[in-house]
Structures are given as structure tokens and as C-alpha cells.
Amino acid sequence: MADVIIIGKGPAGISASLYTMRAGINSTIIGRSFGSIGKAEKIENYYGFENPILGQDLANIGIAQATRIGAVIQTEEVVDIRYDIKFQVETTVKTYEADSVIIATGAARNVPKIPGIDQFEGKGVSYCAVCDGFFYKNMDVAVLGFGDFAVHEAESLIPIVNSVTMLTNGNPQVETLPEGTTVNTKKINEFYGTDKLEGVRFTDGTTLPLQGLFIAYGVADTTALAKKLGLATEGNKIVVDDKMTTNIPGVFAAGDCTGGMYQVGKAVWEGALAGTSAIKFIRDKNVRKFAE
Predict the structure, then answer these.
(1) What confidence category does residue 122 fall into, taking pLDDT thresholds of 50, 70 and 90?
(2) Among 165, 85, 79, residue whose Cα is nearest residue 128
(3) What is the three-class DSSP state of 166?
(4) 115 in a domain, yes or no?
(5) What angle do CA 230, 236, 239 make, to 5 degrees?
(6) CATH number at residue 15
């Protein structure tokens, strides 16, 4: 069982693991991809490299470094985080448990720019089926998405609501459609309503009445995961203090997901800080257990 789960295997997540592992804290790093660093053609403003380096190469060096000291790397997509005695991180493969979680998922970039989404946030638009599904009992809702994350959200809603429609917004239909759902692959023009969400209008002029919409576009991004757990956010960033501590004890965040300058140097520093903060939290928690 991991003592700490680090979500994200970019610079912030790997940096955190270098500290937690060396402190004797079992660490599991979970990430589907390297994020933005893996797409960088050249990085030439990071300390220690005389010549420019490919982002993918720098990411691989970090993985090798973390693996060498014993960190476990899981290439999986995280779809949910919750707390029940321990933190539980659910991926498309399995569920992991730990005493602490470090979120280093990069910047949130998975909310499509469709008119109406921002307008109806909290008025029919939600980012967490587990959190808000109950409020739509016996209603007609939709999940905006087309991947594993969207399927997971739809499965959470099916037992509660009247109907679930998967809206892919022109993307290919999901391969495995959950039983009890329908799919609509039309391109979306807008989500409409007055005081609250009333439906979706497609580019061909047709409409679909809705009482609720759950955003699960692409993979579960920073904002979606944060809201599932109840973390405080400002816009698309997780709110942290000067120790990378969130509003939930035991949960820390680092890197692009906390906002500010999107640079490797900043991510590495925050990862180190989050790692040391997680170490202190876990050690203090174990001391309290022993005292009891």
C-alpha cells in the first residue's frame, strides 16, 4: 500500500517523489502522459543542461531518476479521488489507497469553449457526478465527453437520474457505451436556459432538453479532480498556501495546477515543497496513531 500517491508524472510530480522516497515514504506516481513537457520541442532555460533538450527526453530522465530510488510509476488515467479513512484514487484500471495525495496534474485545459457552460455553472452544469448526481434524481441529464472519464461519470449517474445522454460534440462515439445511456455525436452550438440550464442546441438547429450537464471532456483535469474532492479552486487553479497545502489536510498540489508561471523550474520547486510537506503530514499522523 502506498503512503503517498502522486497524480502526475511531469516535473512537479517526479520532484515530489524524489523527496518522499528518500524519506522512506512509499510513493506511487500515476499519470497517463507527461503533460505539456512531453510536447515541448526544446527546453533551454532549465538549470544543468548546456544544450537544449527535448521535453520528452527531460521527462524520461525524471522517470528514470524516480524509478532508480524505488518510486512506482503507473501509466493510468485517474478518474476519481475520494476519502474514506484513507484517500482513494481511482483509475481506469484499479483503485489505490494512501495516507496523502499530491496533485501535480498540470494546468486545466479540458473545458471546451461552448457558450453556456460558464453561465450555468452551479445552475445545471457540474463537474462531478458523484458529488452532484443526487440533485438530479429522476431528471434528464447529459455527460459532455467521449473517453473513459466520461464513461465513468455516466456510470455514476445511471442509477440516480431518469436518462443519460453522452454528448461527444462531434468527436467519435465512445467505444463502450454504458448500458442505459444514449449517445449524440452532433456538434454543439450552445447550452441554453434562463435562470438555469434548460437544454443544448446543436449546430444543425436541433435541440435536446436537459436539466443537468456533467463536464467530463478528455481526461479528468485539475479542476475536475479538485472539485470531486472538495478542494478550493480559483478559476482553473488549485488554491494552496506557501507549503503547497490545500484546504483538505493530507492533500497537496504543485506545478502548473497551482497557477503562476508555467515553467519547469517552478514546477520542480513546488514539487519539492509539496513532497516535504507530505512527509511531515504522514510522520505527524503516524506519531498521533502511536500515541493513541
Answers:
(1) confident
(2) 79
(3) strand
(4) no
(5) 55
(6) 3.50.50.60
Output phi, psi for 207, to 5 deg: -130, 160
pLDDT digits (tens, 9 = 90+) for 28-75: 999 988 877 876 657 878 889 889 888 889 999 999 999 999 999 999
Rounded CA-CA distance 10/270 in Å is 12
Is pTM beyond 0.85 here? no
* Residue at which a domain ends, from 149, 181, 215: 215
C-alpha grid cell for residue 230? 472538495
> Which of 183, 189, 182, 185 has its CA nearest to residue 204?
189
Cβ-count burial 8-36 (b if 16+ within 10 Å, e if not): bbbbbbbbbbbbbbebebbbbbbbbbbbb
To the nearest 10°, the Cα dihedral for 127, 130, 132, 136? 110
Report the alpha-carbon distance of residue 281 to residue 292 in Å, rounded.
17
Query: Last residue of a domain, which of 156, 185, 215?
Result: 215
Q: Which amino acid is at 9?
A: K
pLDDT digits (tens, 9 = 90+) for 65-88: 999 999 999 999 998 899 988 999
**Quick one: which of 280, 252, 255, 282 has its CA closest to 269?**
255
What's the pLDDT band for 219 if we cut at 50, 70, 90? low
Structure confidence at residue 201 as a pLDDT band (50, 70, 90) = very high
Residue 202 has pLDDT above 80, yes or no: yes
Write b or e for each residue in 135-161: b if 16 or more Cβ atoms lie within 10 A of its Cβ, otherwise e. ebeebbbbbbbbbbbbbbbbbbbeebb
Indicate whether 12 and 95 sit together in one domain.
Answer: yes
The grid coordinates listed for 1 are: 500500500
